Amino acid sequence: MLTEFHFDEDFLAANDLNGKNSNMVNNMLLDFWLERGCLLYPFSELKNYQEWEDTIPAKYSKKWVTALTHARTYDISKLYKKTVSFENINQLESLYKPTGLELILVPNEFTSLGLLDENDSIVFESLEISKINGLLKSNSYSKSITLCNQGIKVGDEIEKIWMLQFQKTAKYSKVITIIDRYFGANLSEDIGRHKREVALDRFVKLLSREGRKFNITICTVGGERDSELYNEITNYLRKKIASNIQFKNTISNITIFSCDDKNFQKFGHDRFICFDNIVYEIGKGFDIFRDLPLFSSTLSIKSSSHSNFKYSLGELLSRRLWTEEF
Predict the structure, then answer these.
(1) Dist CA 161 CA 150 (whole Å)
(2) Which of 40, 33, 35 is nearest to 97 (CA)?
(3) Would you give the DSSP letter of residue 187?
(4) Going edge to edge, which strands form the sheet with 278-282?
């Protein structure tokens, strides 16, 4: 689960990022950002952030440059004021609440806004300020870790699961890849005999709240080209893209490809939903979005670098029976 966080441009000049423990501190902060964070910062101040990067040891300054350029970020130029310019945390929370900001990181020597020498963090309603030393013990970090490993229980509701574990990831993603052996068969079942809402319909409905478009790739057992299952899947997608307003407004492109079931047994036993580089490994897979009661299932969120997702996708791509784009 992503944490929306912020630090001021001169944060990068903190002694903590340059001192004797700088290796550990830089690794910790960069890993947090790349694996479970989105930095909210003023794009108008980018040059100031880049200037302070030069004070960091060369081994890490390049990584900070890459992170500012390629990692998840969000522009708060219209709201931005330096953290030390606020009289109290209440003012901070009021200003940034519309952005979803949860965490502000400050140097260990920071002693303002209620943070004393002996305190590592302070919480006010929805906003937390944490010193570098307090990050791993902060409420925001603990919540993220918990949600990344919190499974699904009997009776849970997909709406709540989405808001707690998916929404912020979707908010900052563009490319979604679904690897689910049973996606095609379940779609056929839902549009056929049962006439219930299809999982992809519900998924797109949830995505549509972000007011942006996504590229979606789906890998499933879809039979041979021109088979009955192939026709059911492709006719459904063709109709949705052509006539459904939510699909039109939310989906830039859908690519779907089919692999034989025996290859899924070898390379795609696990079921994945990947948002850019964040992977959801789900025991029940895309089933959780079907119009059915939810049962117990694992749900684990991790960086793609710590998952078999890329391996499975590569192996299945090389064994495609057919591919269609809509």
Answers:
(1) 10
(2) 40
(3) H
(4) 299-303, 278-282, 272-275, 175-179, 214-220, 251-258, 322-325
For the whole prediction, is pTM greater than 0.85? yes
| DSSP per-residue letters across 231-265 | HHHHHHHHHHHHH-HHHHHHEEEEEEEE--HHHHH
Which position has the token pair 């998916």? 166
Model confidence pLDDT, tens digit, residues 98-151: 999 999 999 999 988 888 878 899 998 899 999 999 999 999 999 999 999 999
Long-range pairs for 170-173: beta carbons < 8 A, 24 or more residues apart: 170/206, 170/207, 170/210, 170/214, 170/275, 171/2, 171/100, 171/210, 172/2, 172/38, 172/72, 172/74, 172/276, 173/214, 173/275, 173/276, 173/278
Largest CA distance in the chain: 69
Torsional sign, CA 7, 8, 12, 16: negative
Q: How big is the chain by its Cα radius of gyration, in Å? A: 22
Q: Please report where in the chains the tokens 């910062």 appear, as a residue.
A: 41
Which residues are 23's β-sheet partners?
none
Which amino acid would we find at residue 219?
C
Q: Each residue of 204-263: pLDDT tens digit?
A: 999 999 999 999 999 999 999 999 999 999 999 999 999 999 999 999 999 999 999 999
Give 26-30's long-range contacts (Cβ < 8 A, gap of 24+): 26/56, 26/57, 26/60, 26/63, 26/64, 28/135, 28/136, 29/105, 29/132, 29/135, 30/60, 30/63, 30/64, 30/67
DSSP structural state of residue 297: B
Nearest to 133 by CA among 106, 111, 104: 106
- Residue that has been written with the tokens 């059915």 in this structure: 292
